[in-house]
């Protein structure tokens, strides 16, 4: 158990559905991240929040909408996804952003399948 | 393009043998981190190296940061089935606060 909890673990959705991924960290960290992990591809950084303020949007399509109500919670709202969006979505937290103290603690991920 | 390269992409190892995987950056890194992701799992932080030429050991794993701080290696001795997984390196490039990940080396072990 890493202290970062993601729900749901698995999600199957149609292209017209709206769903949300949830992430909660119990580590007292200030930074939270969304990463996309596709088969045989590097980890892709999607969004970064520092003290609940978005500091990075890595050219992510608008069908992915993040929300960070506080430093402990992070959501990823999904709307009209495409089959190529099927992947493992990983949430992570870190004490800080940048520098030697930035160490990522990942959640177990949500395995998303878009039909 | 990808800033941090890892080779090989796949490593098939006979149980009991040693192997090394490499991480190379086109620019100087201020630090290097290594993560391990077991099959079906999530990446887990293993270690961080900060100093030029630094070497750290964790049991059968030896991590090294190059003198020029542009490359790193992970050497595993006497490979065991518990070493199966994908090993990622990640680092902060100079003047960039973002952590850049390599694509990983996926290790399989033949018993």
Low-confidence stretches of chain B: none
| Overall pLDDT confidence of chain A | 93
Quaternary status? heterodimer
**Straight-line distance between termini of chain A:** 31 Å
Mean pLDDT of chain B: 94
Number of strands of chain B: 11
Number of helices of chain B: 0
* Count of discrete alpha- or pi-helical segments spanning 4 or more residues of chain A: 0
> Biggest β-sheet of chain A, characterized?
7 strands, mixed
Largest interface, Cβ cutoff 8 Å:
A-B, 20 and 22 residues
Q: State the secondary-structure class of chain B.
A: mainly beta
The helix/strand class of chain A is mainly beta
The total of beta strands of chain A comes to: 11
Describe it for me?
The complex is a heterodimer of chains A (115) and B (111). Chain A has 115 residues and is an all-beta fold. Chain A has no helices and eleven strands. Chain A has strands at residues 4-7, 10-13, 18-25, 31-37, 44-50, 53-57, 64-70, 73-79, 87-94, 105-106, 110-114. In chain A, the strands form two sheets. In chain A, strands 2, 4, 5, 6, 9, 10 and 11 form a seven-stranded mixed beta sheet that branches. A four-stranded antiparallel beta sheet of chain A has the order 1-3-8-7, with no helix packed on it. Helix content of chain B is 0%, strand content 58%. In chain B, strand 4 and strand 5 form a beta hairpin. Chain B is globular and about 45 Å long. The N and C termini of chain B lie far apart (37 Å). The mean pLDDT of chain B is 94. Classes of the chains: A mainly beta (115), B mainly beta (111). The A-B interface holds A 2, 41-43, 45, 48, 56, 90, 97-100, 102-109 and B 2, 30-31, 33, 35, 41-45, 48, 50, 88, 90, 92, 97-99, 101-104.
């Amino acid at each position: 158990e890493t202290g970062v909890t993601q729900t749901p673990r698995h999600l199957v959705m149609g292209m017209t559905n709206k769903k949300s991924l949830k992430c909660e960290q119990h580590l007292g960290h200030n930074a939270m991240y969304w990463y996309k992990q596709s088969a045989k591809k590097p980890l892709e950084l999607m969004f970064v929040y520092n003290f609940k303020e978005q500091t990075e949007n890595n050219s992510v399509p608008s069908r992915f909408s993040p929300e960070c109500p506080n430093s402990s919670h992070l959501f990823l709202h999904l709307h009209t996804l495409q089959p190529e969006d099927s992947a493992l979505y990983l949430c992570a937290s870190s004490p800080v952003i940048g520098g030697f103290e930035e160490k990522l603690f990942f959640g177990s991920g949500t395995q998303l399948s878009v039909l | 393009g990808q800033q941090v390269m890892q080779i090989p992409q796949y490593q098939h190892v006979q149980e009991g043998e040693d192997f090394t995987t490499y991480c190379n950056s086109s620019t100087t890194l201020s630090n290097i981190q290594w993560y391990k992701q077991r099959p079906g799992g999530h990446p887990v932080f293993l270690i961080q190296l900060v100093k030029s030429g630094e070497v750290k050991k964790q049991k059968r794993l030896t991590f090294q940061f190059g003198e020029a701080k542009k490359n790193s290696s992970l050497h595993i001795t006497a490979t065991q089935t518990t070493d199966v997984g994908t090993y990622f390196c990640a680092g902060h490039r100079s003047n960039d606060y973002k952590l850049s990940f390599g694509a990983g080396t996926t290790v399989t072990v033949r018993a």
